[in-house]
């Protein structure tokens, strides 16, 4: 089933981490397998926040071998950063397998990201000036607690609660997905994509990489592909309705935008609230009510509807 | 009507039964027979175990911190105590609020509710001051539901009777598999509204999305605004005087009629005679299958 949520504040920063946690926790019943956030803090030009995982949560059950493996992978990442001339300004770990780097880097970040991912078992979850992408197994309260998200300040964010249907219950199949290698672009999806393998092969032939077998990852790769070809976000969302088969409602966030697209069948829900200073959306109204308990007006976007808002 | 036994009814023709039960009938386009019962006949259709309630006995529940189960149990407990008017405050978008009420009741919901609200009801009059999520009034049998704001998709799915009214706009697939009753939308409706509709009447005062009435078997749809496209089997039909009188009455009843009256409404019905209702030729059956 899965649940998606998003919110964007216009011209101000807010406790986006806490708000997204409240919304996603209200959607827990739609998918308890994993929860993910893409939240956007104040961007710092030249500095990049890199979120990465160096193992799956389940790998930790392997004991000492897993710890040694992780140490080796982190050392490899550090070495590649140094090779690219990236200055590591800070390095934190919420869990042993999930790390957050702040780096200063003037070179080609796409190449840097590709080289880091050459290290087996390492996946960059996000790399951007403002984006921080966090995902793990469990519900929103678990993930927010583990990663300290409840106090996160930012302008906007998207999130996802996953009921695994098309692929495994693991972090690599959890949402959001970063639109690799695009700075600050993330995607969450509710639905199933029926021409996934055809589209995936098409994207792979175009040089794009897939880290999972989850059909939703296609939307991130597809968005990245369009952006690479100079397509604006809104046009990419419109184009996806024509080119991607299946049922889908999905959200895309960039450094200062939040967009939504709904497929031609309108078979996956989205409830939308708009005011002069914020926009909130979720699979169910109960999530919006978690942050806006007062009486408000909401609407359901229609089939083939595309909307984009700016922070 | 009182004084007619079930055994006697069984021996009567359909026409005689209608008269004996005090029902008024209207022959609509196609095969739909719209039947309304008079007040005296109403008693025959209440559940024998339904609680006796007094509409003047009123109470309020603050539902903010309650679960849906607690809310619905509380409604039943209050009805058992004879409360006939119950106000739910602060529902916070909870799902399945007010489902399965099979008795007379004035239920007022002050705020918005989530999915499957007031589904499977048979008898109550419900007023919701906020909006509702997907599948509001699903399988409703009788009574009335009036929503002041917008509604989600599959509004009134498989409804069999009663009036389901949304003053705002609704999502897609409104009245999917509708088997009777009336759905009224003050604003717009989304794609595939009236999909596989089998009986009843739907009124959309605003615009309708694509594939309106797709695969509809029977029933009637009236649209006041633009129709993006008609679905398979759906065709436009001419409004009769009876249609206009009914539309005027219903829209006036819910305060949704404007200065234009009802002449601008487009009437949509099924253009296909379907094999499960009519004895068609084998070739025709094949086409439909």
From TrEMBL, chain A:
The keyword Transferase applies. The keyword Methyltransferase does not apply. Residues 2-311 form the Glutamine amidotransferase type-2 domain. Keywords: Glutamine amidotransferase, Transferase. Signal peptide: none annotated. GO terms for molecular function: transferase activity. PANTHER family: AMIDOPHOSPHORIBOSYLTRANSFERASE (PTHR11907). This is Glutamine amidotransferase. It comes from Pikeienuella piscinae.
TrEMBL record, chain B:
One of its GO terms (molecular function) is oxidoreductase activity. It holds the Pfam family GXGXG. Residues 72-229 form the Glutamate synthase alpha subunit C-terminal domain. This is GXGXG motif-containing protein. It comes from Pikeienuella piscinae. The lineage of its organism: Bacteria, Pseudomonadati, Pseudomonadota, Alphaproteobacteria, Rhodobacterales.
């Amino acid at each position: 089933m899965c649940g998606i949520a998003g919110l964007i504040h216009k011209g101000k920063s807010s406790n986006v981490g806490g708000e997204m946690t409240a919304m996603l926790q209200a959607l827990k019943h739609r998918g308890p397998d994993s929860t993910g956030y893409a939240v956007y803090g104040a961007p710092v030009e030249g500095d990049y926040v890199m979120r990465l995982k160096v193992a799956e949560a389940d790998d930790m059950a392997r004991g000492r071998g897993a710890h040694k493996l992780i140490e080796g992978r982190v050392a490899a990442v550090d070495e590649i950063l140094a090779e690219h001339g990236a200055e590591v300004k800070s390095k934190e770990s919420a869990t042993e397998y999930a790390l957050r780097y702040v780096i200063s880097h003037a070179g080609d970040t796409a190449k840097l990201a590709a080289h880091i991912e050459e290290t087996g078992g390492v996946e960059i979850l996000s790399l951007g000036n403002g984006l921080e992408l966090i995902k793990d197994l469990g519900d929103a309260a678990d993930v927010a607690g583990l990663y300290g998200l409840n106090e996160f300040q930012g302008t906007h964010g998207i999130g996802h609660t996953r009921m695994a249907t098309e692929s495994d219950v693991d972090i690599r199949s959890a949402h959001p997905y970063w639109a690799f290698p695009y700075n600050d672009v993330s995607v969450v999806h509710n639905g199933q994509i029926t021409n996934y393998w055809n589209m995936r092969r098409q994207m792979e032939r175009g040089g794009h990489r897939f880290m999972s077998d989850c059909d939703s990852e296609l939307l991130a790769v597809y968005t990245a592909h369009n952006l690479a070809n100079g397509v604006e976000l809104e046009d990419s969302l419109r184009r996806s309705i024509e080119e991607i088969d299946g049922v889908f409602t999905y959200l895309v966030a960039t450094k200062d935008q939040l967009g939504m697209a709904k497929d031609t069948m309108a078979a996956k829900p989205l409830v939308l609230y708009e005011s002069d200073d914020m926009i909130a959306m979720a699979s169910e109204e109960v999530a919006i009510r978690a942050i806006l308990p007062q009486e408000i007006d909401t609407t359901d976007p229609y089939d083939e509807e595309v909307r984009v808002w700016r922070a | 009507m009182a004084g007619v036994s079930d055994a006697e009814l069984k021996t009567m023709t359909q026409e005689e039964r209608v008269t004996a039960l005090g029902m008024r009938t209207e022959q609509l386009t196609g095969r739909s027979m719209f039947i309304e019962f008079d007040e005296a006949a109403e008693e025959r259709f209440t559940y024998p175990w339904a609680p006796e309630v007094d509409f003047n006995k009123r109470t309020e529940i603050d539902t903010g911190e309650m679960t849906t189960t607690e809310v619905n149990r509380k409604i039943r407990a209050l009805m058992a105590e004879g409360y006939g008017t119950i106000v739910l405050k602060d529902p916070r978008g909870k799902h399945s609020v007010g489902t399965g009420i099979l008795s007379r009741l004035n239920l007022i919901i002050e705020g918005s509710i989530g999915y499957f609200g007031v589904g499977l009801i048979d008898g109550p009059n419900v007023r919701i001051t906020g909006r509702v999520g997907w599948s509001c009034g699903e399988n409703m049998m009788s009574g009335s539901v009036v929503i002041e704001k917008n509604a989600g998709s599959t509004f009134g799915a498989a409804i069999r009777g009663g009036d389901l009214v949304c003053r705002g706009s609704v999502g897609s697939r409104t009245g999917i598999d509708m088997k009777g009753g009336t759905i009224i939308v003050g604003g717009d409706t989304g794609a595939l509204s009236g999909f596989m509709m089998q009986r009843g009447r739907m009124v959309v005062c605003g615009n309708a999305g694509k594939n309106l009435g797709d695969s509809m078997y029977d029933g009637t749809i009236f649209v006041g605004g633009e129709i993006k496209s008609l679905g398979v089997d759906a065709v436009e039909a001419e409004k009769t005087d009876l249609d206009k009188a009914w539309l005027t009455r219903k829209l006036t009843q819910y305060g949704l009629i404007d200065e234009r009256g009802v002449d601008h409404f487009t009437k949509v019905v099924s253009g296909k005679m379907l094999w499960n209702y009519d004895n068609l030729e084998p070739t025709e059956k094949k086409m439909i299958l």
